[in-house]
């Protein structure tokens, strides 16, 4: 059974556009029509841009037309200030390429997620480290504003904590504060264990909170908010079904080394793999997800990298070697 069909049957959504494209390309053994991919390596970081250019590509990918930029940085896990500074600078550059703002256009930063659940606390953590300046423009003299853009931030929580759809809260804030851009930060789900807390994805198409773990909520998009939305995400969890599938795949690959085992492999019913995975995941079914044991430390360091990158990208007076780095300390 193809990975895409297996994931669909198990209720697994792929948050990472680069992963969705890789799976499609492997299954089709050809390029995906309506999708362009560019890759660039800077230092230890691989930057991959997936551009969905047509309705055909949108349907195949399951992603709206737009740009999806992934920074794969395995060194992000290392607790090294210089490495994090380099990465935040690269992220700031990629953010700057996707936003189109006048120097004093206001921006609203939204930290999506549940601050009581560590793997889902990335958004609120970024907000806690964000440099907010909107109040300075409202109440401070012009000479004290220091070339800082009006930036406000909110961590609206989740439906289970507030009883209010997150999109409704954000929409209300947008209507009252009139930002020219919303930047939404959220934790993502990945199919690759190696990508957990080592990749960052930017998307100028907005975000659907909780979609990666089967808990799809109203989208935070330009259509729902009335202003452009840039989404920043970091994969912090992987579905247990994905891990089980990868383990079975590796086992089956070993069958090719033995003629007798290969005949057994060829006789397997493709649907049996899905049934085996479903049996293993009981009684949690589709709700079992995995995260690293050191996720609290990874969330803290990753949130500081993103907050620093936002400061550099949004505030003209902040460089990658001065105030913007205070959040990495």
From TrEMBL:
Molecular function terms, GO-annotated: metalloendopeptidase activity
Gene3D superfamilies, A to Z: HybD-like
Superkingdom of origin organism: Bacteria
Protease in keyword set: yes
Proregion residues excised on maturation: 1-15
Catalysis performed (reactions): Endopeptidase action with P4 Glu or Asp, P1 preferably Glu > Asp, P1' hydrophobic and P2' Ala
Top EC class of this enzyme: hydrolase
A Pfam family it matches: Peptidase_A25
Gene Ontology biological process terms from the UniProt entry: proteolysis; spore germination
UniProt entry keywords in alphabetical sequence: Hydrolase, Protease, Zymogen
Post-translational modification: Autoproteolytically processed. The inactive tetrameric zymogen termed p46 autoprocesses to a smaller form termed p41, which is active only during spore germination.
Its EC number(s): 3.4.24.78
Matches recorded under HAMAP family: Germination_prot (MF_00626)
Oligomeric and partner information: Homotetramer.
Family: Belongs to the peptidase A25 family.
Biological role: Initiates the rapid degradation of small, acid-soluble proteins during spore germination.
Protein name: Germination protease
């Amino acid at each position: 059974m193809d990975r895409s069909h297996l994931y669909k049957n198990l209720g697994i959504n792929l948050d990472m556009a680069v992963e969705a494209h890789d799976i499609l390309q492997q299954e089709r053994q050809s390029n995906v029509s309506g999708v362009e991919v560019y890759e660039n390596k800077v230092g230890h970081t691989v930057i991959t841009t997936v551009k969905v250019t047509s309705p055909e590509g949108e349907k195949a990918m399951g992603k709206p037309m737009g740009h999806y930029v992934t920074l794969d940085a395995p060194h992000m896990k290392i607790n090294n200030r210089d490495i994090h500074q380099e990465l935040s600078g690269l992220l700031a550059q990629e953010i700057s390429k996707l936003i189109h703002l006048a120097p004093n256009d206001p921006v609203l930063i939204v930290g999506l997620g549940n601050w009581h659940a560590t793997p889902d606390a990335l958004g609120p953590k970024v907000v806690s480290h964000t440099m907010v300046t909107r109040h300075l423009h409202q109440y401070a003299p012009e000479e004290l504003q220091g070339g800082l853009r009006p930036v406000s931030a909110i961590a609206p929580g989740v439906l289970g904590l507030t009883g209010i759809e997150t999109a409704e809260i954000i929409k209300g804030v947008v209507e009252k504060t009139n930002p020219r851009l919303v930047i939404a930060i959220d934790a993502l789900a990945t199919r690759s264990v190696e990508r957990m807390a080592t990749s960052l994805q930017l998307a100028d198409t907005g975000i659907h909170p909780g979609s990666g773990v089967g808990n799809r909520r109203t989208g935070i998009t330009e259509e729902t908010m009335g202003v452009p939305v840039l989404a920043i995400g970091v994969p912090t969890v992987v579905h247990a079904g994905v891990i089980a599938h990868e383990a079975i795949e590796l086992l089956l690959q070993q069958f090719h080394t033995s003629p007798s085992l290969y005949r057994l492999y060829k006789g397997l019913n493709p649907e049996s793999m899905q049934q085996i995975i479903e049996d293993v995941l009981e009684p949690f079914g589709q709700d079992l997800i995995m995260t690293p044991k050191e996720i609290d430390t990874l969330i803290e360091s990753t949130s500081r990298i993103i907050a620093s990158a936002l400061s550099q990208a949004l505030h003209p007076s902040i460089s990658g070697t001065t105030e913007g780095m205070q959040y990495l300390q």
